[in-house]
Specification:
single chain, 270 residues, alpha+beta, Jelly Rolls, Arc Repressor Mutant, subunit A, 6-stranded antiparallel sheet, 5-stranded antiparallel sheet, globular, DNA-binding transcription factor activity, transcription
Length: 270
Amino acid sequence: MSGSRSAVSVFDPDLADRPAVARLLDFADYEAEVPVHVHRRGQLILALHGAVTCTADDEIWIVPPDCGVWIPGGMPHSVRTTANARLSYLFVEPGAANLPAVCCTLSISPLVRELVNRLTGEVLDYPPDSHAARLARVTLDELAGMPREHFNLPISNDPKIRAIADALTLDPSDRSTLGDWARRVAMSERSLARLMLRETGLTFGRWRQQLHLVVALRELAGGAAVQTVADTLGYESVNAFITMFKKALGSTPAQYFTQRRAKKLSALSR
């Protein structure tokens, strides 16, 4: 069971004056839900074990294996983890590195992951001419070159779209049609379809599939069985879920995670 403390109570990264500081959190000791908060510093979230999703910039972002979510400083965000999650946080001083000005998922190399993990053991006020300071500089230089991935779900500030997103995030197995949702939010089906496309850039069907992928990747990374995930998402069979997953990502769930592990091992052996 997750602890009763909020992860935001651990320390205030904005009090540090170094270019980058890092911390390691085991969510067995903290609440799985981290409410909306904001940092002056930019924040990179890495999942060492388990999985995490973030809500920021009118989108839901997932942190799959070997990736991280970058949240620029000053952007309100919330976090939800699986109970077994262990996360590394890297907080970056504004202007200290050439990092994106918008939220995004970054592919993270084994080198960057190990550098961040090494920094989690350093004090926040490490001397500017110390080994830790040099590690921080290399970490930021390497991080600036990491490519972007696309593990996110647009949600919008529109109250009707937000209501649908909140409901389906809580119960992704809900198979209500666009017409069903239109009646619930007091709109015509055609008007809701136009609103969804305008606000998210996706049709309702594509948007819900992307939601299912976000949830599936989070749960599978957290150790859930494929059968369990298929049930959670309301699929009639495991095969139907696997077909959707493969069509969207080009491989089955097992192949997807095997390939990512193989890439990690290959990079480590170089």
